[in-house]
Amino acid sequence: MIREIFIALLNIFQHIRIPVVREKLDILTVPEYPSDAVSHLGLMIFTERTLLHSPSTTSELEHQRIALLIAKELAEQVG
Q: Nearest Cα to 29, choosing from 50, 15, 53?
């Protein structure tokens, strides 16, 4: 599901002609971090608890929260 969210959001940014990442984007998940996510040019860091989910037990609201967080971090890549 997370991969599908990234692809859909990248397609949206491409459709409105906003270059999100110049060359590549690395995504890192770590066990603990001071915030749920942070972006640096070409790098997005998420806590494991932010992205780990089970499609069968995660609520629709939680899926939306994950998608919004990913969208926010992708938007911060615009440069």
A: 50
